[in-house]
Amino acid sequence: MGLFSRIFGKRSELASNEQLPVVHVPDSDERMNWAIEKARATMHHFQDSLSEPTPAQQYFSVKVLIDDGTSREHIWLTTPSFDDEGNLYGEVGNKPVYVSSVSINQRIGIDPQFITDWMIIENGRLIGGYTIRAIREGLPDHEVADFDRQVGLYIDEGVDYFAHDFSTPEGAILCLEDAYDEQDIEKAVSCKNFYEEARLLLRKMNDRFNSPEIVEATAEVLRLSFIKNLEEKGFPVFHNLLRAFPARTKITDNLYLITEFCIFPDGGKSRQQLYTFRDEDGWKVLNVAE
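Below the sequence we write its predicted structure tokens.
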């Protein structure tokens, strides 16, 4: 994966010659790989905000991978824009350390497949900036305060902007929570995969009698119990909550455990972990992890 600079590109409060240290992150780093995947999955929010920025959104930048044939480096581009085909344009915001094909202040165009992060500064608060957060999370506790001082931004759990669809595990969870807010039992059921939930349950019970018939019967029990619980206890409420997904744990290629933080209007937080499974229709939600 190469090198990730802590600098975000030029900002008015930084001297033009100020260059913060570069951080080396190996290609195998799971935290950084997840950060890049999350940035790409939520790029739509950055583009929507860039096209219609609010007064609070003071700064936009996109990180891209530059490969000059000899070396690779992740560099922030300032003053970003996109053409009708989705190609990205921007000014190289920090002095390259390892690549020689671009230089600071140079305006370049690049295919969006090379985007590795995006960030918005909103009233001094970091929005996006997933690789920045990944670097910060990997620091020893005693170094975090100094990192925050150098960054000069408020960094909280963040709010993630996954599309509400079944293309990602997080999007499937958001679809289920939308169904709860709409109090739509049929829609909520369509966001679940009770067969795979039953298989997971039986596997955890170390049940040797997990034939397809037993799995089917268990799945039907889970489906009916899910519906009965909503009818009798009502629907959870999510419409006034901010949500962040700080961690994704791969169990198999099609089974992931997702960590979700819900942030309440009063600042309170809750944490839950949910299993998700990818079937032929996309990602679906299984059960909450115990």
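The two ends are 34 Å apart (CA to CA).
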